Each structure stands twice: as C-alpha cells, then as structure tokens.
Amino acid sequence: MQNLMTLLHVLGVVVWVGGMFFAYMALRPVAAAVLEPPQRLRLWAGVFGKFFPWVWLSVLLILLSGLHMLMIFGGFRAPHYALTMLLLGVIMMLIFAHVFFAPYKKLKRAVAGQDWPAGGVALGQIRILIGINLLIGLLTIAVVFIGRALA
C-alpha cells in the first residue's frame, strides 16, 4: 500500500509541477512572441480549461496520498521535511484554488465577452501566481530530497 501511495503522490506532483514548468517556461514565452493578445488570451483560456481538471485530480491524489503517508510516519511526529512538505503543499493548493476561482474565472468571462484588457489583467494575475506556485513546488521537491538525505 505504501508503494501505491508514493506512486500516486509522485504522479500528482509530476503532472502539476511539470505542467506549470512547461506552461511557464515554454508555452508562455512562445505564445507572447507569436500571438496577438486576443489569440493569446483564447489560447490560455483553452489551455487552462484542459490543464486545471488535471490539477484538481493531482491535488486530490497528492493530498490523500500525502495524508496517508503522514499517518504512517506518526502524524505530526513525522520528520520535519514531511511536515514542511505538507505546509508547502497546502499553500500551493490554496494558491491554485484562488487562481481557479478568481482570475481564471475572470479570464474566461473576459474571453467570452472579448474584453481583451480585462483578460490581460486576469492572465497577468494567473502568470504571477503560477510562477509563485512553480517556485514553491520546486522548493518542496528540494526540501523532500534534502530532508531525506539528511535524515
């Protein structure tokens, strides 16, 4: 059971953090260079519409498998790196929920109404928050591997 939980946890992280890395480091600069704002906003609304359901699934897998593994470690008596991972993961989940329910909702509404300035503002907010989440995600991965090596 422990191996299954670890597998589900890692798969969730790979999908979420890997997707953010691809979107932020590869898709974003190319889209900004080759697309006009209306096309760029439509692209991002479509990309997020396909990616965010996978993020929700990843969040569920990460949270459930992580809590299961944490209980095996003894709950809040688990190693510090595991508790740090939990804290950073919850912060990431809250940031994602905010992105989904606030600026992403505004982006979809702006694209549907062809309100390109409002869409640009919403996309800018999403970009910043995804950048923050990407950094936290990479930091979390580093914390786990360094913490395990030092334990």
**Strand percentage, roughly?**
under 5%
How many separate domains make up the residues? 1
Question: What would you call the structural class?
Answer: mainly alpha
Mean pLDDT metric: 96
Element-by-element helix/strand order: HHHHH
Radius of gyration: 17 Å
Shape estimate: elongated
Specify the helix fraction band. over 70%
Q: What's the main sheet like? A: none
Give the termini distance in whole angstroms.
23 Å
Low-confidence stretches: none
How many helical stretches?
5
The total of beta strands comes to 0
In words, what does this structure look like?
Helix content is 90%, strand content 0%. The chain is mostly helical. It has one domain (2-150). The relative contact order is 0.14. The model has no long low-confidence stretch (mean pLDDT 96).
